[in-house]
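Typical record was shown:
=====
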Amino acid sequence: MGCCDSMAPVSEEVALASGPGGRFDAWVTEPKGGISHLDLIVPEIHCAGCISKIERALNAVHGVEHARVNFSTKRVAVDWKTGETNAETVAATLTGLGYEVRPFRSDGGESGDREGKRLLTAMAVAGFAAGNVMLLSVSVWAGAELATKDLFHWLSALIALPAVIYAGGPFYRSAWKAVRHGRMNMDVPISLAVILAAAMSLHETIVGGPDAYFDASVMLLFFLLVGRYLDHMMRTRARQAVSQLVSLGSKGAMVEGADGVHYLPIESVSRGDTVLVAAGETVPVDGTVLSGETAIDMSLVTGESLPERVGPGAMVRAGTLNLDAPLRVEVTAAGEDTFLADVVRLMESAEQRKDKYVRLADKAARIYAPVVHLVALFTFIGWMLAGAGTHSAAITAIAVLIITCPCALALAVPAVQVVAVGALFRGGVMVKDGAALEKLAEIDTAVFDKTGTLTLGRPGLVAADSVPSQLLAEAAGLAKHSRHPLSRAVVAAAKDRGIAPAPMEEVTEVPGHGVQGQLDGRTVRMGSLRWLGVDEDRDDASAQSLKLAVTAPDGSPDGFGEPLVLTFEDEMRPDAARVIADLQARKVEVVILSGDREAAVAPLARALGVGRWHAGLLPQDKVREIEALSEAGRKVLVVGDGLNDGPALAAGYTSIAPSSASDLGRTAADFVFFGDSLAPVTFAGQVARRARRLVLQNFNLARVYNVIAVPTAIAGFASPLVAAIAMSSSSVIVIGNALRLRAARKSSIDRAVGKNRETHR
């Protein structure tokens, strides 16, 4: 039975006493299709066992259709049949399990790391007390006179007891709630060991006994709080990407009606309405373009950074960005029925599935806590039956509790994770979720996005050296007035060749076409092939290339020369082929899932030796592919960067994004790597596998320690003070073993840093 394995039933009286009309009813959303919805915050959710227990209890409530927990936000969402239960009964169910419950506030009212601050303060208090009490203990060990020894014991009590009361708070509160609701967790033996050691020490001090064990209590608390705080830091780095997706949505829209144009809240916009979308605005609805022609940033849908041209009859999606001209759009879906809302639901669902992962330490904790209690209890009973007095039996039992206290176990995972995080950061990888290190060591499938992941996501001018200098200067003179990705590529190509942009005058951007300006009385244009009268199916550019045309300066009377086609292609990351080959050599299957066109994906897959790939995928399609792999038993690493990759990154077993990714991509991923090199992906895998081995070694070290130390304590050969020293020694050994990761990976880290820096330059 672990920290959250048992489930206390909720009494019918408690549930009914809540009744309707309570403080939670105001937070229930409007019933939709006979279903009511409530979001709650449960701040004490701290492991996969909590998630499982809460969902089982809520789904067992009569009328509840669905209950789900989001560990990242500590949020519990519940749907029930309207009239069959109520918000207060739902809240009472959680309260009956021993959890504090508050309404969820989407305005960020639950932000702030209060738990982290409490743990840090408690750790500082315990550390201060441990240092001072240890100094007093050293004086006692040095052979102080009896009167002086008694004084030192009282001074130790004055320092240690307030520290034990305050710093032990996180463990006492958790242990009391567990016991009060018939559960067992790791904090119960910790609390017993600390309280009994302090109480016995106080008794020895009052009666003038030769020994006191205040240093055991505060030292034990300090080491445990170090482990608890390190683990908390790693857990709170979990992503919260849903809020970023929600921010892409519009709160209202300009709706065209018979009496003019009015701004309406998005909830009041209906299918069939006509919405006006100005240039630079986010499209608020799904709909069909009635009039207007513009470029739309479709990165949310396809992942491609290049805008897509739309005109009358084209479909547009909520959350995409209208770049350069106004549109009139007939609404086909609004609010919760839009494409963006579907992506948000995908993201939430994927995060909730990911939260169910049970960490190695949680698995170990499930059997450790009850064993510790039984060993200490049998020790006390055994010594009493053997004829020892209550005092001696209690001292021995306390020593057993201290020596078996899960300090090394508590440090086994976070100590390795902190060292691994530092090693990865030196190698150009930032870790956002500690559990992801465990997962990354287990992956057997790697799914890659194309644009911005296997490629750099920034098109470059093909054969730039062959473009005439004067024409490139004129193209750059126009391009510097535009923010289009291809215009930026033209400016970059001119800069690389040391060509200054021509001094254009009267530069204007023609929406949907391109840019034009005046140079020496001559009109110069750069833009779409159609605008400049070039056959779009001409054979001098590959099908997967992107193209612009620019007028050539031939001095003809109309000022226009024969247009020259500029071809652009997205550059592959420099070591993408080697990284793919390394993964395949480790028997990791590589799959490419892209929203780009087949003509662009197929050549890249062939060049990389990837046989399994899919093109033209929407976010939902990517998630379905990843779910299919997961259902087949595969542990999938997802590497992606775009807005459309957010749900896929969350749906994977674990995920990595480049630092150049969208805000959503970086937030949704477990890891973020820096630079243009893809090598950090394989480097992170190496560190993760090494870290997992060290964690398992730490567990084995803790097991060996217990095999030796526990019989010693049971036999009465270890006082509580000796037990505390032994416990601390095991913790130091665990930390020292974790530090081997830094030494073992130093050369690999240095090589990774060098490669990243070289590639970045």
The CA atoms of residues 675 and 760 lie 5 Å apart. The longest strand covers residues 564-572. The first helix runs from residue 12 to 18.
